[in-house]
Amino acid sequence: MCLPSFVLAEPSVNAARKPLDLTQHWVGYVAIAIFSIAYILAMLEEVTELRKSKPMVLAASLIWIAIALIYANGNISETASHSFRTALEGFAELFLFIMVSMAYLNAMEDRGIFENLRIWLLSKSFSYRQLFWITGVMSFWLSSVCNNLTTALLMGAVVMAVGKDNKRFVTTACVNIVVATNAGGSFSPFGDITTLLVWQKGQVPFASFYSLLVPAIVNFALPAALMHYFVPKAQPAASNEKPAMKRGAVTIIVLFLLTIITAVAFENFLDLPPAAGMLMGLTYLKFFSYYLQQTVGKTNEQHSVLKSDAMDMPKLADNQSFDVFEKVAQLEWDTLLFFYGVMMSVAGLSFIGYLNFASEFLYGKIDPTIANILVGIFSAFIDNGTIMYAVLTMDPNISQGQWLLVTLTAGVGGSLLAIGSAAGVGLMGQAKGIYTFSSHLKWMPVILIGYFGSIGAHFLLNSRFF
């Protein structure tokens, strides 16, 4: 699997002391209010021009300060401290995983790989509608073997390059990419954090996940078919440019694939966090960066033999040199800090007792099918990994068909809003001012059709599991 299996805050942090139930306490009410206000401000980023990370990081800090004050007053600070550190460890794994992925993506962009793909697509004379489907289908299948954030950023870079002269195409294509990546990750045991959690818990056997393939295709294809008619019929301007990548481009692609394999091996064979494998993969890029830096002079010497004009040599050096730390510095730090705010805020709400309260209501008082559909809708507002962890903690007595249903809904429900998944949040950072919360929101009714269509397909095709 290519996703970091981060650990969320446990509802019970040690055997000696259990967390206090603060759901009816002023701390609980204040935490809900703070989280809600921060999320609203994050949604309004394009209006307020306030970076989304600022309110979310502040919210996380204030929520945990309130919790810590209560626990310190009762001389049980170690309970809250342990829970916070557990949640922080989970974010650290996610952060490191994403950092390496983004570093590789920036490196590939620097070497001209995405620009090369853009030139190739333009040379094939594809229309915007054809490009819409090509990028969507590629996103769907890539996300089944790699995390949805990396896939979305990769395909988003391609769409931005191909459709840079047509904002309408880029906006619609980004929505399609978010839906496709979330759908593609929902049928693979290692394609998304939700499927990973369910698989590791042993609720669904490995092979059974692939019974969600057709429902996942329906989830992607229905909205895409409807959005197709709103994609411009025009064709991007033809390009006479010749594909040309900088030195080391192909090697970096191979090293990225090797890094993903390393992360898979760390998780599946060594029982170590995938983030550790990704960091090992970063060293592949760092050593290769060293090689490029040490050999750039030799390349210039060879070039000077072919080109007598010495003025070409500095230009070549600037064009071909490579610094991996420069690529790390170019990361979308606002997005990473936003993740921190969301994860730590939700961990605080879970520690207070709200997620357990919600789980008990869902599976104790209403039909499990309705409950699982609601879980998917909730995942558009709250991280789907957190929602799934809460469901697994509740451990409801439901059939395997229902476990597959909640895996599907939690995985694809995040597509309903731009902030509902890492793919959406990442693309908002990448395509600032073009793909926004509001531009995604107007397509929510269409995405909702795909959401319920996939549920219908699951009941129709997988009735044997119920």
TrEMBL record:
<feature type="transmembrane region" description="Helical">
    <location>
        <begin position="443"/>
        <end position="461"/>
    </location>
</feature>
<keyword id="KW-0813">Transport</keyword>
<feature type="transmembrane region" description="Helical">
    <location>
        <begin position="207"/>
        <end position="227"/>
    </location>
</feature>
<keyword id="KW-0472">Membrane</keyword>
<feature type="transmembrane region" description="Helical">
    <location>
        <begin position="25"/>
        <end position="44"/>
    </location>
</feature>
<dbReference type="InterPro" id="IPR004680">
    <property type="entry name" value="Cit_transptr-like_dom"/>
</dbReference>
<feature type="transmembrane region" description="Helical">
    <location>
        <begin position="403"/>
        <end position="423"/>
    </location>
</feature>
<dbReference type="GO" id="GO:0016020">
    <property type="term" value="C:membrane"/>
</dbReference>
<protein>
    <submittedName>
        <fullName>Sodium:proton antiporter</fullName>
    </submittedName>
</protein>
<dbReference type="GO" id="GO:0006814">
    <property type="term" value="P:sodium ion transport"/>
</dbReference>
<feature type="transmembrane region" description="Helical">
    <location>
        <begin position="56"/>
        <end position="74"/>
    </location>
</feature>
<dbReference type="Pfam" id="PF03600">
    <property type="entry name" value="CitMHS"/>
</dbReference>
<keyword id="KW-0739">Sodium transport</keyword>
<comment type="similarity">
    <text>Belongs to the NhaD Na(+)/H(+) (TC 2.A.62) antiporter family.</text>
</comment>
<feature type="transmembrane region" description="Helical">
    <location>
        <begin position="86"/>
        <end position="105"/>
    </location>
</feature>
<dbReference type="InterPro" id="IPR045016">
    <property type="entry name" value="NhaD-like"/>
</dbReference>
<dbReference type="GO" id="GO:0015297">
    <property type="term" value="F:antiporter activity"/>
</dbReference>
<keyword id="KW-0050">Antiport</keyword>
<feature type="transmembrane region" description="Helical">
    <location>
        <begin position="369"/>
        <end position="391"/>
    </location>
</feature>
<keyword id="KW-0915">Sodium</keyword>
<feature type="domain" description="Citrate transporter-like">
    <location>
        <begin position="40"/>
        <end position="411"/>
    </location>
</feature>
<feature type="transmembrane region" description="Helical">
    <location>
        <begin position="248"/>
        <end position="266"/>
    </location>
</feature>
<keyword id="KW-1133">Transmembrane helix</keyword>
<feature type="transmembrane region" description="Helical">
    <location>
        <begin position="140"/>
        <end position="162"/>
    </location>
</feature>
<feature type="transmembrane region" description="Helical">
    <location>
        <begin position="337"/>
        <end position="357"/>
    </location>
</feature>
<keyword id="KW-0406">Ion transport</keyword>
<keyword id="KW-0812">Transmembrane</keyword>
